[in-house]
Design brief:
229 residues; alpha/beta; Rossmann fold; 5 helices; binds guanosine-5'-diphosphate
Amino acid sequence: MTLLVSARFTTTVAQMHQLPVDGLPEVAFAGRSNAGKSSALNVLCNRRRLAFASRMPGRTQALNFFAIGPQDQPNGFLVDMPGYGYATAPGAVRESWIGLAGDYLRTRQPLVAVVLMLDIRRGVTALDHGLLDWTPVTIPVLGLLTKADKLSRNQQQTALRTVRAELALRHPSRRFDLVLFSSTHRIGLEEASDRIAAFYRLTQDSDHSDDPDHPSADPDQHPHPDNAV
Ligand code: GDP
């Protein structure tokens, strides 16, 4: 539970050339607007308003980087991606989202994992599938089924099975890990934190090899959690 608590806002990236060049592993947080990403970030990092940093003017359509780990030697970055899917978003906003987020997901070498917020009552939407299509299949995806408190235990299990089946059908080559999650009721908090921390640790462990400046994106270097779907 401790690694993410160290998160602190570091930088905003509005264009690809502004991305950090140090090669530290990055875990991206993504999801539809209103899926509960800000709430999840705040509770996972144990800050009431951590994600507030991403809502400052000029930052809402950007990638916001939070360093985690020791101040002098961070373990990596948590990357808060702009929410997508606002029905009312003007075309230009949508375009810029697709440009930056799409390029980032498709090409970013230090990206080691994506944490995808899925509102448990909506399941996987077409836009979520689109995001997964952009993300190289070698990148593990942790799906947080957010707002699980809104469903009964039985309904939660049904939703979990449905999402798992749909992801397996639509993205057969990708490994997913799913966690029932609620920021308000602190469901799945520890499990999600541990899994996210493991993404950074796995990278460090596999980083000993040949090129310390470029953590490997080789899928074999990032074993998936045992109970992945
Ligand atoms: P974002 O747009 O993805 O950052 O979503 P927010 O974190 O701002 O949450 C969107 C709405 O969902 C807000 O009204 C939150 O209060 C609500 N919400 C977020 N997480 C939870 C949760 O775990 N349980 C419940 N019941 N509501 C939540």
